[in-house]
TrEMBL record:
Species the sequence originates in: Aegilops tauschii subsp. strangulata
Matches recorded under InterPro entries: FAS1_dom_sf, FAS1_domain, Plant_FLA
Pfam family, one: Fasciclin
Gene3D superfamilies (alphabetical): FAS1 domain (2.30.180.10)
Ranges for region Disordered: 353-390
Cellular-component GO terms for this entry: plasma membrane; side of membrane
Compartments in which it is found: Cell membrane
Full protein name: FAS1 domain-containing protein
Keywords: Cell membrane, Glycoprotein, GPI-anchor, Lipoprotein, Membrane, Signal
Acidic residues: compositionally biased ranges: 368-382
All copies of domain FAS1, residue ranges: 41-188, 201-343
Primary localisation category: membrane
Bilayer topology term: Lipid-anchor; GPI-anchor
Length: 413
């Protein structure tokens, strides 16, 4: 019969093995979870395109620019209306329709199962109409009530007492917990969302830029007829313009002067996004945005990544990272923000390389020689960003595997 010491020693060994195994699994999970999340796989336009009975609702999401706003959200519920229900919106102007439909986009996830299992049978959810700062007070909230028998109703917070709630019909598409598309039988009524939206006041874009932070950039725009025309044709339908501050323009001018006329036009249009983004929306969403240069150049990307960290908003082009420093003007459908650096697209400039581990002294010298010119070299190949994120992902997998391997070796030792 084994001695007490042997039993204790055996138990301690098993405990040590269990702890090491748990450590290995935990290390691998932690490393993999730290990997960049895959891009969201949903697109509201494509989801609804498979259901022709929602073609009018789908078309209006695109016309009001709500479709792109929805696709940038991480957790969302869309309350869709079929073609017959959409007839109730025919007499409203497009800006008002945008407000009404933004009330139908809830900034939380509600699938069929969650609707039927609401705590105490009722809840209230903020809508995009409220979260973007358009609505005042509680008017952008939607009350959801689950009744016995599975019936679920929706009604806006500021709806008149005589308004009949909208009834949940069915689930169209659910991707937990990213997006849920649900059909309701009628338009949500809201006195504030239905209020007439005054037409935008005329804005002299060059004057606006010249008064606040961006006089030099205004000069570049006014000196390029194609860019000047494009911006003015776009601003009344939704435009967000990121203008480099005067110091940033001055620092970039030596490179700008060496660009071709076509490249100058492209890089100026690259600072304009054909959609309206309030500062609140920029601070609450991350994602890639297309630019006016995207539509002007065939087979060219000309996009960049908008990232936020609390109150800080940055624009990442893979060549340079620029920070939003001030609001020059913000009145829907036009928003203008000052940024710290001139935005340089990967289609025109060499992609910034990720830092590598310190090499030998000889290697350091060679790397230093390369770095001196890497940011100045132009690139005529838009494919220079291939595999940009892959090394980091593979590196994390390698780290996880190495960690797990080392621990398993200890277990077998």
């Amino acid at each position: 019969m084994p001695s007490a010491d042997t039993v204790v020693s055996s138990a301690m060994a098993r405990s040590r093995q269990s702890m090491l195994l748990a450590f290995a699994v935990g290390a691998m999970a932690a490393v993999l979870l730290a990997s960049p999340a895959a891009a969201k796989s949903y697109n509201i336009t494509k989801i609804l395109a498979a259901h022709p009975e929602f073609s009018k609702f789908n078309a209006m999401l695109s016309k009001t620019r709500l479709a792109s706003d929805i696709n940038r959200r991480q957790t969302i519920t869309v309350l869709a209306l079929d073609n017959s229900a959409m007839a109730a919106l025919d007499h409203y102007t497009l800006p008002t329709v945008r407000h009404i439909l933004s009330l139908h986009v809830l900034v939380d996830y509600y699938g069929n199962k969650k609707l039927k299992q609401l705590s105490r049978g009722a809840t209230a959810s903020a809508s995009m109409f409220q979260s973007t700062g358009t609505a005042s007070g509680m008017s952008g909230y939607v009350n959801i009530t689950s009744h016995k028998g599975g019936k679920v109703e929706f009604v806006s917070q500021d709806a008149d007492d005589t308004v009949k709630p909208s009834r949940y019909v069915k689930s169209i598409k659910e991707i937990p917990y990213d997006i849920s598309v649900l059909e309701i039988n009628s338009v949500l009524s809201s006195s504030e969302a239905e209020a007439p939206v005054p037409p935008p006041a005329p804005v002299d874009l060059i004057e606006l830029l010249s008064k606040k932070h961006c006089k030099s950039f205004a000069g570049l725009i006014s000196g390029n007829a194609d860019v000047f025309r494009t911006l003015n044709e776009t601003k009344d339908n939704g435009l967000t313009l990121f203008c480099p501050v005067d110091a940033a323009v001055a620092a970039f001018m030596p490179k700008y002067k060496n660009l071709t006329a076509k490249a100058k036009t492209a890089i100026l249009l690259y600072h304009g996004v054909p959609d309206y983004f309030s500062l609140q929306l920029l601070k609450s969403n991350n994602g890639m945005v297309s630019t006016l240069a995207t539509t002007s150049e065939v087979k060219k990307d000309y996009s960049y990544d908008v990232q936020n960290d609390d109150e800080k908003v940055t624009l990442v082009t893979k060549v340079v990272t620029s920070t939003v420093t001030a609001t020059v003007g913000d009145s829907e459908p036009l928003a203008v923000y000052a940024v710290s650096k001139f935005l340089k697209p990967k289609e025109l400039f060499k992609v910034a390389q990720a830092p590598t581990p310190a090499p030998s002294k000889k290697g350091k010298k060679e790397a230093g020689d390369d770095d001196d010119s890497s940011d100045d070299e132009d690139s005529d190949d838009a494919t220079t960003d291939k595999g940009d994120a892959a090394p980091a992902v593979y590196g994390r997998w390698a780290t996880a595997a190495a960690t797990a391997g080392a621990v398993l070796a200890l277990l077998m030792g």
